[in-house]
Amino acid sequence: MNLKPQDVIVALKLCGYPTGRPPISVVAGDLGLSPSEVHGAIQRLRTSRLLHGPALKDKPNISGLEEFLVHGLKYAFPAEHGEVTRGIPTSYAAEPLKSEITVSNVETCKARLTQGRT
Predict the structure, then answer these.
(1) Which CA distances in Å does 29 have to 9, 11, 23, 107, 118?
(2) Phi and psi at residue 9, in whole multiples of 5°?
(3) Buried b vs exposed e over 10-21: b needs ≥16 C-beta within 10 Å?
(4) From its phi and psi, is residue 49 left (phi > 0), alpha (psi between -120 and 50) or beta?
């Protein structure tokens, strides 16, 4: 069972409750998630041992969670570069760089960079 990005948010929210986990509906309301999403997140967090389980009132495993956030988060949820999309012009597409840089040069540079990754 793989963690989902919202599971990290649920785990961090559970760290904010001082007396253990409140009812799932309270956590769901606080986060703006559905109760079923929070329930699934809690199950996945238990499986990955980031929560101690029902015997300890689903308290977060602080040391494990800290280690995951510092060392594992970037590997579990790597950043993915997307394709060029429409939107607000930034970087070379906005002035003052727009008049200084031609699009063909930028596209050529991008093509050279992507060739090196394959």
Answers:
(1) 13, 15, 10, 46, 45
(2) -65, -40
(3) bbebbeebeeeb
(4) left
- For 38-66, what is each residue's pLDDT tens digit? 999 999 999 999 998 888 888 899 999 99
State the chain's maximal CA–CA distance in angstroms. Answer: 65
Q: Which domains does the chain have, with CATH numbers?
A: 5-76 (1.10.10), 89-118 (no CATH)
CA dist., res. 69 & res. 64, Å (int): 9
More confident residue, 85 or 92: 85
Amino acid 57: pLDDT: 81
Q: Residue 68, Cβ neighbours under 10 Å: how many? A: 19
Other CB atoms within a 10 A radius of the CB of residue 38 amount to 26
CA–chain centroid gap for 18, Å, is: 24
| The model's pTM | 0.66
